[in-house]
Amino acid sequence: MTLDLDAYWSRIGWRPDAGGTGPSEAQLHALALAHVQRVPFENLDVLLGRGVSIDPDAVFDKLVRRRRGGYCFEQNTLLHRVLSSLGYDAELLSARVRLGRGRDVTPARTHVLNRVRLGGVSYLLDVGVGGLSPTFALRLAPGEQRRTHEPRRLVWEGDWAGEARGPEARIFHQVALDGAWQDVCELTLERSHPVDREVGNWYTSRHPKSHFLDKLTVARATPGGRVTLLNRRLTVRDGDAVRVEELPTPQALVGALRDRFGIELPEHEARSLPALDWQPDQ
């Protein structure tokens, strides 16, 4: 299927002529921000036992035409198609998600993100890392970067000579939360091949030890912060203000998905989500 860019622009509420003409850093920033505000991160199909297809046309149908969300294998492969269609030199890279994990743990390489080369500079665009998806393009360079939402930085570890690396060399993408830097993911600039994504997507959506099988996760950015849903707990951040609400019923969950994330979920499917453990009278 030919990529319907007009449908994608309608989905994210932005189009290139709003951010200048031709590939540019400003356009990359605007595209990342618009995408993470309008296309939520979510794992509903995993919890409902449907699995996840990363066929490009299936991803486009789900995220754009059916106005659903998805996780990294869907989000960043869709963005890669868009970037390529706009004339960017873009490729998908493999990474390991490190949120909530110590450096003594080696998580599976089950994350993908985009690298873009533009005018001799490389950028990372990652619209698929949940409630902390960057809202701007990160320059592939060490040091702190600020634009919208949380401050970010890339930290080089090990033996690097330009972009060539030794066997133990890694790059850590970090975010500043509550005054402390935390790892988001680690990467080595290794390209993600289609077969790698097939294996990673199977593990993420089907393997019994995948964390996507035991909890509901939905998230998107807002102009002033983030809105996230972890099982029944809805957290709305707007600047320094944080509001947390426990959703008491399947009906409340359906309403939150619709009103906060633009996701339409039938009530009977909300009741069947295994991670939420509804009581019979709820």
Shape: globular
User: Which series of helices and strands comes N to C?
Assistant: HHEHHHEEEEEEEEEEHEEEEHH
Q: How far apart, in Å, are the first and last alpha carbons?
A: 43 Å
CA-based gyration radius: 18 Å
Q: Uncertain spans, ≥5 residues at pLDDT below 50? A: none
What can be said about the biggest beta sheet? 8 strands, antiparallel
- Count of structural domains: 2
Given helix and strand content, the structural type is: alpha+beta
What can you tell me about this protein's structure?
With about 280 residues, the protein is an alpha+beta fold. The protein has two domains: about 5-205, Arylamine N-acetyltransferase fold (2-Layer Sandwich), CATH 3.30.2140.20; about 210-270, 2-Layer Sandwich (Arylamine N-acetyltransferase fold), CATH 3.30.2140.10. The protein is built from eight helices and 15 strands. The strands form three sheets. Strands 5-4-3-2-11-10-7-6 form an eight-stranded antiparallel sheet. A five-stranded antiparallel sheet has the order 1-12-13-14-15. A two-stranded antiparallel sheet has the order 8-9. The mean pLDDT is about 90.
Question: Would you kindly provide a brief summary of this structure?
Answer:
This protein has 282 residues and is of the alpha+beta class. The protein has helices at 5-12, 25-38, 44-47, 56-65, 72-85, 194-206, 250-261, 267-272, and strands at 41-42, 89-97, 111-118, 121-125, 138-139, 143-145, 152-157, 160-161, 164-165, 170-177, 180-191, 217-222, 225-230, 233-238, 241-246.
